[in-house]
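Task 17 of the worksheet. Students: predict the tertiary structure of the chain below and write it out as C-alpha cells. Keep your answer in the requested format; marks are given for formatting as well as content.
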Amino acid sequence: MSDTRSVMSEAALPLFSGPGPAAAPSRNAVSASRATASTSQPRPARTLPSYLRDHRKRLRERFLEGGAQAMPDYELLELLLFRAIPRQDVKPLARRLLDAFGDLAGAVTAAPARLARIDGVGQAVIAELKLAEAMATRLSRARVINRPVISSWQALLDYCHSALSHRETEHFRVLFLDRKNTLIADEELGRGTVDHVPVYPREVLRRALELNASALILVHNHPSGDPTPSNADIAMTEQIRMAGETLSITLHDHLIIGRSRECSFRGQGLL
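Model answer:
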C-alpha cells in the first residue's frame, strides 16, 4: 500500500509543463490486451483433412448408389462410426471391431461391456452400434408381427436370427399366436448362461392365457452356434406341449437358433 501511495503522489506533481515521453505499458496491461485480441477474433473451425473428407464422401456416394451389397463389413462399420467420431479416421477402429467380434453382426450385437474394452470405443460409438442393432431387430419384427406366420415363415426365421443368433448367453422367447395363426405377441421369458436358460412351463402357459393365445412357437438360441437340441431342450418342449394340450393351446414348433442356421423341432420330427 505505501508503494502505491508514493507512485500516485509523484504522478500528481507538475514536474513538466509539456508532454513527456509515453509510459511503457505494464505487464498486466499487455496481457489484458492480448487476451482481448484473442477473444475478439473467432478461431477457425476445426475441419477434417481433405483426404478424410474425400474418403467419407466417396463411401457415402458408393453406399447410396450401389447399396450395402458391394461394400465389405469394415466399410459399413466406417459409415456407422462417422457420426460417433466426426474428426478422425475410423477405419482402424472398424478393423479392430471386426477382429474382436468376427463380423459386422457380431460387432453390432456385442454387449456394451465388451465393446468398451476395445481401444477407441467410447459411449458415442456404443450408442451408434446399439442403435443399429435396435433398428435392425425392429425392422425384422415389423415384417412378422400381426401377420400369419405360415405365409411369412422365412421372415419369422430372419427375425429370430437377427434377435438371437449373436447373443452370448441363452435367451428364451415365446411367440404367441391367435386362432388364425397371426403373431400377436413376442416376449422374452428367460435369460440364462452360455449353455442353459431356465424355462418354467407354468409361466409360459399362464402368459398364453393372459394374451388369449391359441398357439405357441418357442424360440431360444445356442451361443455355441450349433442348434442341435439337447436332451433338456427336448424334455422341456414335451412338458410345454403336454401342458398346452390340457388348455387347448397348440405348440406349433420350437426353433433353436444357431450362428448361421436353425433347428425346427417340427421339421426334425420332434413334435
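Marker's comment: Residues 1-22, 35-40 have pLDDT under 50 and may be disordered. The CA atoms of residues 178 and 213 lie 5 Å apart.
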